[in-house]
Write a structure and sequence with these properties.
Blueprint (H helix, E strand, L loop, with lengths): L3 H6 L17 H36 L3 H4 L1 H24 L2 H24 L3 H28 L6 H26 L5 H28 L7 H11 L12 H22 L1 H8 L5 H26 L4 H16 L7 H15 L2 H9 L7 H10 L3 H16 L1 H4 L1 H10 L1 H8 L1 H11 L12 H4 L15 H8 L1
Keywords: Cell membrane, Membrane, Transmembrane, Transmembrane helix
Protein name: Major facilitator superfamily domain-containing protein
Main location: membrane
């Protein structure tokens, strides 16, 4: 079993200038890798939801104000650009997606283990450092996982695919606040901090195990040559232009920055919002309400996926982000259940925005896909900027009025779906991928070349399978 050929197959280095079968993966071929990577989406959804709960928990136990508690979000999301434009991007370009998955899980596990002594010594600054390491791990995972899900399978289903996988991210964000309400807020402060330690130990054990699973798994690697082929086949590519002239990409990254900042700010101060604006609501009950709001978010993702089967994803995206703007506004002035319900509805419509920006922003990048995805994921840095601004406004004027801050950033992000729907240069590129038959009509690369054999060049031989095509089209 453990022969030289076996270990060669486990190699993490991939040649980016060689086309493989991955450019034309069918639905059936993409199921296992999508399943495996979707586990990662649950992981960082859980970590993100846990962070929102810890935000309020540390306000209570360490006596820090809202602005300082946002240091958790600043450390977590501030690590994303360092990963997506730095170390993870370098590993992705020089090795491949599987190498980045393993690297990200390793950093996640190390950060979780280091969090334990930080909690023991009641060190908020030390815990922020650990969260920064975890953020680097999760930023690495997002740098690889989002583009991987987008391109792993027929291109016409990329928005549906990434939203479905991201729906499990939403499930993770539901589980974490529920856990927090029973593990952090239902005990005295000392016991609650001990529980935090056990949670992070369990996380470390799980992610190290998952890293080993990724190392042992055979998942297809997707190269720059594969992406250039897709862009050429759909006639939507701009990869002949240098990266600095991929203006649609940078608009998508800007939209991601603004949108993510708003989303994180709302979730970070949700518990503060309901405890201040709703009668008889303590932190434990507020954490349960947050779990309900995150459930609304997860439900919105599943609903968005269903709608995208019938309506073009760019149109669904425009409607959902527009409704985010409309429903966040009343939460500024309304109180009690009405104000809270406005946030529930806002989270429902937030659901598809992040993954859809990723999918649309990567359209037509071709050989720039790996580097370009790093810029879009780097836009998550907004989660380190907007929450502190919101926290400062909340300390000065109350959490309800502070919702003006995420509202403004929602409006800025809204410029992207408007451009994608009404500017032909954006719209035509997006639509080219929704009509392509790539992944539905068999492969044009022979098995030997696709598996990294010694074949002489690419054999452009169509491998037809009418029975499979008819099933997938149906």
């Amino acid at each position: 079993m453990f022969t030289k050929g076996y270990w060669k197959k486990r190699s993490l280095r991939v040649s980016d200038d060689q086309r493989t079968k991955a450019a034309e993966l069918t639905l059936r071929e993409s199921l296992y890798p999508i399943f495996l990577v979707t586990i990662l989406f649950f992981l960082w959804g859980f970590s993100y939801g846990l962070l929102d709960t810890l935000n309020k928990h540390f306000q209570n136990t360490l006596g820090i104000d809202k602005a300082r508690s946002s240091g958790l979000q600043a450390a977590y999301f501030g690590a994303y650009p360092l990963a997506s434009l730095g170390h993870a991007a370098w590993i992705l370009r020089h090795f491949g997606y599987r190498a980045v998955f393993i690297w990200g899980l390793f950093l996640y596990g190390v950060g979780a283990l280091l969090a334990i002594p930080a909690v023991i010594h009641h060190s908020f600054g030390g815990f922020c450092v650990c969260i920064f390491i975890i953020g680097n791990g999760l930023g690495s995972l997002e740098t690889a996982a989002n583009p991987y899900i987008t391109v792993c399978g027929p291109p016409r289903f990329s928005e549906i695919r990434i939203n479905l996988s991201q729906a499990f991210n939403g499930i993770g964000t539901v589980v974490a606040p529920v856990l927090g309400s029973y593990v952090f807020f239902a005990f005295d402060d000392e016991r609650a901090l001990q529980n935090v330690q056990w949670v992070y130990l369990a996380i470390a054990c799980f992610v190290f195990t998952l890293a080993f699973v990724f190392y042992m798994s055979d998942i297809p690697e997707i190269t720059d040559a594969d992406m250039a082929f897709q862009a050429e086949e759909t006639h939507a590519g701009n990869d002949d232009k240098p990266l600095r002239k991929q203006y649609r990409l940078f608009h998508a990254a800007f939209a991601q920055f603004c949108y993510t900042g708003s989303q994180v700010a709302i979730a970070s101060y949700f518990i503060n919002y309901v405890t201040e604006t709703r009668s008889n609501t303590d932190s434990a009950l507020g954490s349960k309400f947050l779990a309900g709001a995150q459930a609304s978010f997860a439900l919105g993702r599943f609903a968005g996926v269903a709608i995208m089967h019938f309506i073009m994803p760019r149109k669904v995206f425009l409607v959902f982000l527009t409704l985010c703007v409309i429903f966040i506004a009343p939460s500024i002035t309304q109180r009690e259940n009405i104000g809270m319900s406005m946030l529930y509805v806002t989270l429902f419509f937030e659901s598809i925005c992040f993954p859809t920006i990723v999918a649309l922003g990567m359209r037509g990048l071709g050989r720039h896909t790996k580097r370009g995805s790093g810029f879009i994921v780097g836009g998550v840095f907004g989660g380190a900027i907007v929450p502190p601004l919101t926290g400062a406004a909340a300390d000065a004027h109350g959490t309800a009025l502070a919702m003006v801050v995420p509202l403004c950033f929602f409006v800025a992000a809204w410029t992207y779906p408007v451009a994608v729907n009404f500017w032909p240069w954006y719209r035509d590129t997006a639509d080219a991928f929704t009509t392509t038959e790539i992944g539905l009509r068999g492969h044009t690369v022979d098995e030997e070349t696709a598996s990294g054999g010694n074949g002489d060049g690419l054999k452009e031989k169509e491998i037809e399978n009418p029975e499979l095509i008819s099933k997938q089209t149906a």
